[in-house]
Amino acid sequence: MNRRPSRPKRPGPPKRRTTPRPPVDDPARRAALDTLRAVRAQDAYANLVLPGMLRDRRITGRDAALATELAYGSCRAIGWLDQVLEACSERALSTVDPELLDALRLGAYQLLRTRIPPHAAVASTVDLVRSESGSKLGGFVNAVLRRVSEADEATWVERLAPDAATDPVGHLATATSHPKWIARAFADALGDTGDELAAALRADDRRPAVHLVARPGEISADELAAVTGGDVAPYSPYGVRLEAGAGDPADLEPVAEKFAAVQDEGSQLCALALTRPELETVAAQEERWLDLCAGPGGKAALLGALAAVSGATVDAVEKTPHRAGLVRGAVEGLPVTVHLADGREFGEPGSYDRVLVDAPCTGLGSLRRRPEARWRRQPSDVGGLTKLQRELLMRAVELVRPGGVVAYVVCSPHLAETVGVVGDVVRRTGAKPLPAKEFFPEMPDLGDGDNVQLWPHRHGTDAMFCALLRR
Ligand SMILES: C[S@@+](CC[C@H](N)C(=O)[O-])C[C@H]1O[C@@H](n2cnc3c(N)ncnc32)[C@H](O)[C@@H]1O
After folding, report:
1. Which residues are catalytic, by number?
2. What is the pLDDT of residue 284?
3. Which PANTHER family does the UniProt record give (predicted)?
4. If exposure means fewest CB atoms within 10 Å of the residue's CB, which of 108, 175, 214, 457 is most exposed?
């Protein structure tokens, strides 16, 4: 082979490199960035977008774990990351291109909340930006992130958060990366602005265990635990807990065969609580139960299985066609009839023994399951939701027979959605509050009052609220 003779080397100092090194291809961080962008620009849910992206791009193992940590972590912390970035940018963040801002958030998250070495966090983010927008914007990102890296998260909290002594809720909201109105709602529900509030807010950043429900009459919790390698749940007689990140539960045989389903243990206990109080209705041949807000069908399926065992029947109402379809799928083979209808206009007054109102809500009780949710929800959502909740609960009280039972459930601890709605309906209808706690005998730490408020930091469940009323 002919080789060209190499040029003679010139003596003297090496020449400065004029072209920067090419950006490194980084599939994990690229997937995290694309997830952040989908969440911002398309109102996507991070926990739905990312798994599909990882599958399509064949990202597995450590890269998949890194993409997940960075995408979900950045989504949870968006408001806080923006506060720090604002302090480090010479331009107002509102004038920064949104796509670039997503990259800055990803870089800042790595600097503040991971053990990734600062130079790697900065360089990898600059590379992502350079690969799509060139060196000039890469330089801007480099400058901002270098300023972020000058202090650790605790120091940034000290600098930017309100004073803990004069504004404890504002301080904890910043320190745990929650909007203040949500921290305030938790504080009001807990009656605490100190350690317990901090624990409740911090629990939203922990990855929840997967809870399974063993369908009564098909499989016991012991059997389900043995088959899935999980642990029998501490509270629900039908519950099994799997380790967080134990793989896709849909792949488990009992789930595929519909002997079991994914369902938070708190949800299981709320559905069960509807079936537990003695009825004071005139005896009928068989009990008629109603699930007034059934989609996607988790509680309807558990109620259906309990009804099958006890000889009752269930009507399940859902307003949205797609979700009514999901209910049909969930209750196949059970004594449940699905109705596509508005619960506020459904049914004949006085025709049910037990009615569940698992009402649409802010979902502040399951923020740990949806990384971006805390920043998407707005305080202005609460008014419209409480109006709908009140109307649905009023209708439920009409639909139940005298002496029958209504369970009102929301996945939120916000007092306006919980005791606010229940108190209002009790005043207007004369329905009698039952001591709901007595019907959660398995559950410790339920605090004062009749109603049940569960919490992730106390019970490992979503923050479900349940009130029981007798007509
Ligand atoms: C919190 S979810 C219910 C969850 C369900 N019970 C489960 O365990 O799977 C509330 C449901 O109520 C439905 N919904 C909203 N407004 C409604 C209405 N006016 N009548 C009936 N369903 C309604 C929503 O579409 C949503 O599917």
Report:
1. 411
2. 64
3. NOP2 YEAST -RELATED NOL1/NOP2/FMU SUN DOMAIN-CONTAINING, RIBOSOMAL RNA SMALL SUBUNIT METHYLTRANSFERASE B-RELATED
4. 457
Does 80 have pLDDT greater than 90?
Answer: yes
Q: Tokens standing for 147?
A: 């300023």
Burial (CB count <10 Å: 0-12, 13-18, 19+), residue 56:
exposed
**Distance (Å) of CA 57 to CA 32, 34, 67, 125:** 12, 12, 12, 20
What is the rounded distance in angstroms from the CA atom of residue 420 to the CA atom of residue 402? 23
User: Which residue, chain included where needed, has tokens 């597995």?
Assistant: 60
Residue 449 annotated as binding site: no
> Which residues are paired to 313 by β-bridges?
288
Q: Quickly count helices (H) and strands (E) in the chain.
A: 19, 12
Say how many Å lie between the CA of residue 343 and the centre of ligand 1: 9
Tokens of 202: 């911090």
- The model's pLDDT over 232-290, given as tens digits with 9 standing for 90+, comes to 999 999 999 998 777 789 889 999 999 999 999 999 999 999 999 999 977 667 899 99
Closest to 403 (Cα-Cα) out of 470, 328, 467: 470
Classify residue 170 by burial, with Cβ atoms within 10 Å: 0-12, 13-18, 19+.
middle
pLDDT in tens, 407-443: 999 999 999 999 999 999 999 999 999 999 999 999 9
**Spatial contact of 418 and 465, defined as CB atoms under 8 Å apart:** yes
- Residue bearing the CA closest to ligand 1, atom 6: 294
> Taking a C-beta distance cutoff of 8 angstroms, is the pair 337, 290 a contact?
no
Kindly give the distance from the C-alpha atom of residue 15 to the centroid of ligand 1, in angstroms, as a whole number.
68
- Give 168-212 pLDDT, tens digit per residue: 999 999 999 999 999 999 999 999 999 999 999 999 999 899 999
What does the alpha-carbon distance between residue 235 and residue 238 come to, in Å, rounded to a whole number?
9
Residue of 318, 388, 399, 414 best suited for mutating to test ligand 1, as the one with most atoms within 8 Å of CB: 318
Any idea which residue has 């041949």 for tokens?
Answer: 285
Q: Nearest CA to 120 among 29, 233, 13? A: 29
Please report, as a single letter, which amino acid is at residue 456: P
Peptide bond into 296 cis (omega under 30): yes
Most ligand 1 atoms within 8 A of CB, residue of 291, 293, 322, 388 to mutate: 293
